Sequence to fold (432 residues):
Amino acid sequence: MEAISHAGTVLGVLAKDGVVLAAEKKVTGKLLDMSGSKEGGYGGSGEKIFLLNSNVISGVAGLTADANSLVNYSRQTAQGHLFNYNDDIPVELLVQRLCDLKQGYTQYGGLRPFGVSILYAGYDPHYQFQLYHSDPSGNYSGWKATCIGANNGTAQSLLKQEYKDDIGIDEAVGLVLRTMSKTMDSTTLGSEKLEFATLTLDADKRPKAKIYKPAEIDALLVKHDLAKKDEDAEMRAA
Amino acid sequence: MDISFALTGKGYVLVAADTTAARSIIKMKSDEDKIKVLSPHLLMAFSGEPGDTVNFAEYVERNLRLYHIRHTYPLRPASAASWIRRSLAESLRSRNPYSVNLLLGGYDTATHTPELYWVDYLGTMTSVPFGAHGYGSYFALSLLDRYHDPEAGLEEGLAALRRCIDEVSKRLVVSPGKYKVKVVDKDGVREIEL
Fold:
C-alpha cells in the first residue's frame, strides 16, 4: 500500500458514451527508448496503461513487476472466456477473477500480496461503460470517477467537485487533463510524462479501445490548451 | 428414435420434440419432456443415446443456472451455445463421449433477435433459421425449405410446424403419437397446445 501511494497517479472518469484513463509516468528521461510506444501495435509504453481485451483497458499503480504479472493473468483470463463463450468477457467478471487471485495471495501459501492498485475501464452489453478500482487486498468497487497513486486524495476531491452525472466523453477528457495538470509533479503536462487512453463505441456499436501515442497526446493537450508553451518563442513575439 | 424440429419467426423460436420414451418394441412413456428450459429465454431440445441425453441436458441446465446465479444475468443464447458446443467437443475425445444432439432456441434480450442453433454430438454447431434432428429431419427440412418464413408471425410458424409433424405421422413407419411444443420470445418460455 505504501508503494502505491508513491507511484504515478492514475485517473479514471466514466462518461455516458465512454471511459477515459490517464496516468503519470515515473520512468522517464532522455535515454529512455520510446520507439515501442511511438509505433507499437496496441499503444502505450508498457508502464502504466494496458489493453486487457478489446473491451477493457487498465491503468496500474504500484510495483511495476507485480502489475505486469497481473496484466498477463487478466489477458489470459479474458481470452479463456472468449474461448469458452465466444464473447468478450463482461468487465465485472474480469475484475472479479483478478481480485480472486489477489485475495488468494493474502490468505494462502505464505506469499506476499501483489503491491498494485488497478483501475479497469471497460464496456459490455449488460452494463455498458464501467469503471472499477481494485487494491492489493482483492477488494473492488465500481466508480464514476476515481484516482489511485500519488496525490489521489487531491485528485479525488477535485473530481468530486467537477464531475457531473451525464458528462460526455469530450468533457470527460477535458476534466481528466485538467485534474492531471493540477495533481502531477511537473508544472506542465507533456507526452513524455503522460499516458492517455479512451474506451468508446465505434460505428458498429463495438467497443473501441484507444491508447494514445505520444504525438496524439501532444495534439490533445494543444486542443485543450494545456500544452507546454514555448517560452522563448513567446518572448520573441512579445 | 427421437424426433425434434425447431424454427425461427418474427421475434420468436418454436421448438418441438416428440414425447415418446421407448426401448426396443415397448413404448414406456408417451408424455416425456425432451425440451429443457435452460434460462428465462433459452430452450434446448435433446436427442440421442438414452441416459447420455438427460445427463448432458441436466449438466448444461445446472451450469447455466449457476452462471445466472453468480452473475445476476443469464448467458446470451450465442454465448451459451458456444459453451455447450465446447463441452461436447471436449467430451468427444474423452474416454466416454456424450452422444447427444441438440436444438438450441433462444431470444437474445440485448439485441431483440430470435436465435436457433443446430448442435450435434461431434460438437458441430451452426446458426440456422430452422433445423431438425433424427428421422424427422428427412421430411422436415425440405418442407421447411419450402414453407418457412423467418418474418412470419406465430400462427404461420405453427402452421409450418404442423406440416412437418403431419408428414412424419403419414410417412414414418414408427411415428410418434404426440409432440411437445414450446415457444420462446421476449416474454420468455411457454408451452403451446398444437
